[in-house]
Every structure is written in structure tokens, then in C-alpha cells.
Design a protein that fits this description.
By secondary structure, this protein is mainly alpha-helical. The chain is built from 16 helices and no strands. The radius of gyration is 20 Å and the shape is globular.
Length: 345
């Protein structure tokens, strides 16, 4: 069904660069066109409100758009759109006041802190939130909250972004993760895959500081990302494929060009004409979406083939990974051209 990344690395040189601009533009355009799906309901502070379908999507929009903004040129439409989406998300949380109310109501919960840290990484601050967060993060209870190691790394990175003292040593916590232990690669499956991608996101500040990645983890990932991504493509796990491609683009040193050239065209086939990418499973055939447009009696943008909650995360992740990959490949190509020019002088 898909190109084999593990057994046939090194597709045509430059194939990733040929698809990445369009993939990024369409995926980010989908997010921009679906702001209403990310908008918070009026009862968001109600204890019965589902965090995973309200605050989580908005926090992810802010976080991933922060990296997209940092990874795109200031004169590009994608840079501008990412900035506008961050501003939209900041408005939704009332410039941080809503997150402050959440923190007051659930002082033991990490998610308001982590959502706030996404904005803090972009330079958006709320004095009241930071005052309370500083008090809470200095407590014994905060330092001894029991959670999985990769989740604790996320909290440590959030503390770093906000500017509070780290409650634990990041290196010690990293050593307790599936990835930090350099687990047997054949033990890779869905939960461990997401755990390792988020471990990388947290230690590299969402892929923007690759040099924080230890050398042994870099070598391990370079060896095993190709077969893992190959398996995800074969099983049509589009969301996890996108996260693993973001990890590939976060490796220090030269980007894994052969891997990116082989994998990106395969992932691009999962993207619908309107930009959406499903999390898993079969993709909607173009003929079906075209027929839906005809049946609706109007032309214009392609109708969505997937419900919002079934595609928003994978679509954002695709845009995030595409921006990172595009930056790494173009920067490395420019550096290589400069080096070649210097060598001939």
C-alpha cells in the first residue's frame, strides 16, 4: 500500500521537499478554517466539562503552532497563520485568566500549567497565573506527584518555559523513560511509540532545541525510526507516523534525508484535499469527497471527510512535522551548498 521506508530507504532525492510545502499549507489551512472546533464552550470551567475535547485541542493548537511559527520564515503565509492561531487560542483563555481559574480550582493538576507553558514559550504571560504557579510548584506535593516519566518530563519542560525552578532533574527522569532506557526496538508498539515521541518533544522543547538530545538516544533513533515509521505507514497509523517524522526532524546534526524522502510522500497520500489527515485507518477516497460536494448542491472547498475530533490532532501534527522537516531539509541543503562553494574556492 505504501512505500517501504525500512527496506527501500533513499527514495528519489528531494521527494520530501517536493511535497512538504503543500502538505504544510493544506494542514495549517485546515486548522485555520476550523477555528470554531477549537473554540472553548461557555461552560468550560464546569467540573463536568470534558477536558480532552475542549482544553486539550486548544492547548495543542497553541503548542504546535508555536513550533510552526519558530520553524517558518517571517515572510511566509504559514508563519503569519500560525501566529494568528496562537493569538486566537490566547483570546480563548482570556489572556491566561481562564487558566488561572483552572489552577485555582485544581491546584494539583498539571494540565493548566502545561497549557499555559505553551503560551509562555511564545512570550505570552499572565502575572496572576505565574504568581500562583510559582507558589504551587514549590510545594512538596508538586515535587512528589506520581506520574509516568515522560509526563513528568513535560512538566519539567513547562517549568523551564515558565521560569520556575525545576522540581526534578531532567536527566534522571529521562533515564526512567522507555526511550531513555534504549528499550529493545522490537518492543515498539502504539503506547510506547507515543511515549517516546513525547519524550523527545519534552527534552528538545518541542523539537526546537535538538542539541539537548543525548548522543546515545540520537544514534538509537537514527537506527530504528525507519522500520518503526514503515510499520506505522503499513498499519495506517497516520497520527503516530506524523509524530515520528517530527522526531526525525528533531535529531541533532544532519537530518535523515533518506528517511524523510521515503516517508513524506507516503504520509501525503493520507491527506484529504481540504487538508485533513485522519488519525488512523482508511482514508476517504477523493471520489467520495467530490461526490459529497455535488450532492450538497454547492461548489467550493472540499467538505470534511472526517469528524473534527477524529482528525484535528493528526492534522496539526502533520503541519508541525512538515514545518520542522521543511526547515531542517532546506537549512541543511543551504549549508551543504555553502560548504561546496567554499571547497572550490
Amino acid at each position: 500500500m505504501t512505500a517501504s521506508v525500512a527496506t527501500a530507504p533513499g527514495g528519489t532525492t528531494g521527494t520530501a521537499l517536493s511535497v512538504l510545502p503543500g502538505v504544510l499549507r493544506q494542514a495549517l489551512g485546515w486548522a485555520d478554517a476550523h477555528r470554531a472546533g477549537f473554540a472553548l464552550p461557555s461552560d468550560v470551567l464546569d467540573p463536568h466539562t470534558q477536558v480532552n475535547s475542549t482544553l486539550k485541542p486548544l492547548g495543542e493548537l497553541a503548542q504546535l503552532c508555536t513550533t510552526i511559527r519558530r520553524s517558518t520564515g517571517p515572510d511566509t503565509p504559514e508563519h503569519r497563520t500560525a501566529g494568528e492561531l496562537i493569538t486566537f487560542a490566547w483570546d480563548q483563555v482570556h489572556a491566561g485568566d481562564l487558566l488561572l481559574e483552572l489552577l485555582r480550582g485544581e491546584p494539583f493538576a498539571a494540565y493548566p500549567y502545561e497549557i499555559y507553558a505553551a503560551f509562555a514559550g511564545y512570550g505570552l504571560r499572565n502575572e496572576g497565573f505565574e504568581r500562583l504557579a510559582g507558589t504551587l510548584s514549590a510545594t512538596r506535593g508538586w515535587a512528589h506527584t506520581e506520574q509516568q516519566a515522560n509526563r513528568e518530563l513535560g512538566l519539567i519542560n513547562s517549568e523551564r518555559r515558565v521560569g520556575n525552578a525545576l522540581h526534578a532533574d531532567a536527566g534522571s527522569v529521562l533515564a526512567r523513560t522507555w526511550l531513555g532506557g534504549l528499550s529493545e526496538p522490537w518492543m515498539f508498539e502504539g503506547p510506547s511509540g507515543y511515549a517516546l515521541t513525547h519524550t523527545v518533544f519534552h527534552i528538545t522543547d518541542w523539537c526546537c532545541v535538538p542539541e539537548r538530545m543525548p548522543a546515545d538516544i540520537d544514534a538509537y533513533l537514527r537506527a530504528w525510526l525507519p522500520p518503526w515509521i514503515d510499520g506505522c505507514l503499513e498499519s495506517r497509523q497516520w497520527d503516530l507516523t506524523g509524530e515520528l517524522l517530527a522526531v526525525a526532524a528533531a535529531l541533532p546534526g544532519p537530518p535523515p534525508r533518506d528517511l524523510l524522502d521515503a516517508a513524506w510522500p507516503a504520509l501525503a497520500t493520507a491527506q484529504a484535499p481540504g487538508g485533513a489527515v485522519p488519525e488512523t485507518g482508511p482514508t476517504a477516497p477523493p471520489a467520495k469527497t467530490a461526490q459529497a460536494a455535488v450532492s450538497s448542491g454547492h461548489a467550493g472547498p472540499e467538505p470534511d471527510p472526517y469528524p473534527f475530533l477524529a482528525c484535528y490532532h493528526s492534522t496539526l501534527v502533520t503541519a508541525f512535522a512538515a514545518a520542522l522537516s521543511l526547515k531542517r531539509l532546506t537549512t541543511h541543503r543551504a549549508d551543504a551548498a555553502t560548504a561546496d562553494t567554499g571547497a572550490t574556492v
